[in-house]
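Replying to the earlier thread about multi-chain prediction with a worked example.

Input:
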Amino acid sequence: MARKGSVETRYGPGKYAAFHLLLGVWIRRYVRNGSCVYVTLGGTELRDIQSLIFINQALASSIYSFEIAADRFQLACESRDKLLKIGIKVECVPTSIFEYKRASNERHLFFLDLEGIYDLEYARDFELLFKSNTLREGDGLLVTSHLGHNPGYIKTVFRWFEREFQWLNITDTEEKRELYRVAHPSFVLYRALEQADLIDTLSLTCFGSVQYFDTSSMGLYGYAIGAGQTQFRNFIADTSARAFSIPTVRRPTAATR
Amino acid sequence: MALTTDWQSLAHQKRVEILANNSDQQIIDKYRLPGDSPEERIRFLAQERALWVPKEIGDFRKAGKPPTKDSLLGAYRDLQRSEALLELIDNSIDVWLTRRSGTATVVEKELNIFIDIDKELGLLTYEDNAGGVLENKLIQLVVPGYSDTDDFSHTIGSYKTGGKKAVFRLATAAQIMTWHRGAEGRTEQPFSVQLDQNWLSDPDLYQFEYAPITDKKLIEQGHTKYVLRLHEEPEGGTQWYQQLGLNEQVERQINDTYGLLLVRNPDIHIHYRDRARALTVDPQALYDFSGAKDGDINITPQQVIFRTKLPYKGKNHDIDIEVIIGCRRGVGAGPYGLDLYGNDRLFVACDQDLFQSVLPRGNAARLFRGLINIQGPNVFVPWDTHKRHLNIDREITRLILMHPLITKVFDNWFSIYKKIGGGGRGEVKSRINVPLKPSPKRQDLPIPNRAKLDINAHEKRGVLPENLFTPHVKVITKASDRVDIKLHFTRAEGEQIKRYYVVSGDVADQSTRTELATRIQEDVLKRASRARAK
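Result:
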C-alpha cells in the first residue's frame, strides 16, 4: 500500500510474498493452463504485473492498469514503457478501476491494491461491478485492506458489521476483532452481493488471505466467483479457515536464562 | 380423475368445516388447491389450519356493518387545505384527459379550472369544464369508492376517495352543480347536489339529495362547480385566504404539483383566484440544471425512459419509468434531490432518502437534482392515498432501486457529483454554473439527451447500451493535491459569519455548516486569486 498522499506506490517484500502466494493458489485451483484478462489497481511500479508474468508468462492475455491520480498515472506510464521493452504490453487507463468496461467473456483477474481499509464504502462499487456483469462467474479477485491502525473498534467497526456479528452469534469483543482482521473484506463483498440481489446467482469463495507487514500491517484477500449460491456462514467459515500470516522479522531480544 | 371443485370457490364456513373433518390427503384428493406441487398444497393446508383453527371453534355467527364516514370526517385534520384542492384538480385533469383520449365524443379543447374565494361570504368556488357528470353518476362526486377510474387507468386518481375527502376537508356545507356534455344533440340536464352541515357531519348518512337546476344560467354545459362554505380557519380570526403568506403557500403548492404536467399539457389552465390569469410554468426554471458542456465536461441533463412490464391481477401491464437527472449549477440554496411523479403529477418533492446510502457524502450530494416519473396504470404508482409519500415496499420502488440499468444511470451521475465535489476545488465548481440552453422541443423540459430503453423487470445483471449518453467531467486529481484545513468557531462567531455570508438556518445544523464552509472557501479563494493577480 502507498502512503496516503505520496506519489510513488510501494511494492514491498511482504506484499510481494502475499501476492505470489495467493496468485499461486488461484492458478492452481481455478485456472490451471488457461489465461485471463488482468485488471489492476497495482500502482506506479507495475510490480504486480511483473510478478504475474514471472509466475506464468502465458497467464495474462491482456493487461489493464488503472490509476486515477495524474501524477501517479504518469509514473505508471513510465513503468509501462519499460515493460514494453521486455515484451510485456500493458494498457494504462487514467480513470477509476470501477469504471472498467468489460469487453470480453474471457476470465478476469482483478487486483485492487487499495489505499486504506476495504470498508463498507466499497460495497456499492462492488455491487455495481456485479450488476454490470463486470465481475462474474469464473473471475478472480485479489484485494488488499489496511490492518495497521485501529479504526475504532467499538464505535466504528463493530457498528459497521453489527449485523454480520449478530448472524454469526459473536458477542465477545476479542473474537470480533480477530474475525474483523481475517474476514472484513468478505463482509463487504457479501453486502455487495446482497445489494445486487445476486446471493442466489453467484457463489463467492475466499480461497485464501495473507496478512503481511511492510511499512504497516496489511491483508491480501483472494476470492473466486462462480455460479451458484453464497451462504453467509459458509462463506465466512471458509474465509477464516484459509487465513495465513507471513511472520514479521523482529529485532532479536536479549537471551534470558 | 380431474378435480372439479375449486377450494377457493367454497364459502368460508364450508371450508372450515372441511378442514375440521378431513385429513390433508382427503382434501387434496377431492379439491383443487392453490400450488403447483404436492409440497405446496400441503403447505397451503398447513397455513389454512394455522390460520382458521378449524377444530377449536364452535358455530359461526354474523356481525359487521357498512363503513361509516368517519375516515372522511377525519380528513379535516389529516389533509392540508392545498392538498384538498389538489384532489379536486386531480379529478378534473383525469376526467378531461380520459375524455380527450377517446372515450367521449365532445371534449373541450382546453381544460380550464377556476378556483375563487369570496372573502365576504367565506365561499370557495371550484369550477372546471372537464365534461360534467351524468345524473346516474352523481354518486361518484359524493360517496367514496364510486368512480369511473379503475386500477388500470393511466390517471392520477387511484383510490376513489380524493374529491370526496376534499369536500369534507374544506367545507361545512357544499353544493355541487354539474351539467354533463354528451354527444351533440343529446338532451342533458344540469343538477345540483346539496350537502348540508348535517350530511357532512353524520357518519352514517350516505344518501344525499340532489335536484335538477331549472335556471341554466347558473352553470355552463360540460362544467362542474363546487361551492363550498369554508371551515373557519382559524376560528374567529383573519381567515387563511386573507393572509397573504398562507394564500401564496396554496398557490405555490399547486404550481409545484402540476408544474411538469402543465408544461407537457399546455391546454390545461389552472386559475387560482384570478380568472384572467392562469398559473404559468417556465420549463427552464422548473429544474435549474447545469448546461456545462465543452471538451472536458458534459453534464447536460439526461432523460431515460425505461419501458417495462409488471404483473397485476394475473396480467402484465406496460409501465414507463421516466428518469430525468442532471447536475445543479452549484451547491448553494435551492431545491436539490429527487422529485417523484406519478403520471406527471408530483407527489414527493426533493427526496434525499431514496438514494441516501449511495449518494456521495457532504456537499457533493447537493448537486443531485432529478425526477422519477412513473407512467402507466395508477395502481403501479407507489404513492399513498394523499399522494404525499412514497411507499418503499412497492415492487416498482424496489425495481428502481435494484435494476442494474436504472441504478447505473443514477450511479453515473453520482460519480460525477463526487468528482465535482472532491476534485479541483473551486475550479470545477465554477465551470458547472452554466445555464441550460432552451430546448427547441416544446411542451417539455429542455433535456438535450433523451433515450428509451426496454428493460426486463426481473433482470439482475446488465450493461447500458454504448450509445447511451454518459455524463463526464475531467478532473485532474493528484495523489498529493489536497490540503484539509480545519477551522473552529464559537457559536457567536458562527452566527456572525452566517450573517456576513447571508446564510440561513441554525448554525449547528450540518447543512448550514456545509454551506458556510463552501462560502468561506469560495470567498477566501477569490480574495487570494485577486491578491495574486495584483
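DSSP finds eight helices and eight strands in chain A.

Feel free to reuse this layout for your own posts.
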